[in-house]
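Ticket #4471: structure export looks truncated?
Reporter: QA, pipeline team
Priority: medium

Steps to reproduce: submit the single chain below to the structure queue and open the exported record.
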Amino acid sequence: MKAMILAAGRGERMRPLTDRIPKPLLTVAGKALIVYHIEALVQAGIRDLVINHAHLGEQIEAALGDGAGFGARIRYCPEPPGALDTGGGILNALPLLGAAPFAVINADVWTDYPFTRLPAEPPGRAHLVLVDNPVHHPEGDFALRDGHVHRDGGPRLTFSGIGVYRPELFDGCTPGRFPLAPLLREAMDAAMVGGEHYGGRWLDVGTPERLAELQTWRLA
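Actual output as written to the record:
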């Protein structure tokens, strides 16, 4: 399985920290956020990685190189200023990801989720990892029932930013900027999205306050 790490966001809520450094390169316990993902993916046997970038993306390429230093093989998918949003970014990277299902991970989360749990062949078009609702997002995103993810109903959980997708999820999409959520909701309506609930440690590192909180965690 290949994996894509989404690293093209501007990090507006992290300013001024992200005015001079892209959010994935912000450090926690002396290590860049994106490096935690790379190391965990390699440990899980996922070594072929695609990283998209836009804002200050040259810094990401300079810091990570071809991935050899991490035991990975990294290819980059640059995006235009303003980036392509999640859906457009993944569609833009499909030529590098190939025809098989692939994992996608948001660069701006931290988790101890074991990537070995990700299904190489999800039964539907997507498999989402859901987590308990954090304080800043108490309403959650989706419901999980009998291994299927639903847009409505409850109890609701929060999408972790970790998923596995089949390329067919993007059939009919036009290149350009567009979000991922509408594609997922359409697939949910067709009962084509599986999922799991992960109860371990996870944090959306979206603000300076949450970055400071993560600095206090004992990271494995």
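Status: closed, not a bug. The export was complete when the record was re-opened. Leaving a note from the reviewer for reference: The chain has five helices and 13 strands.
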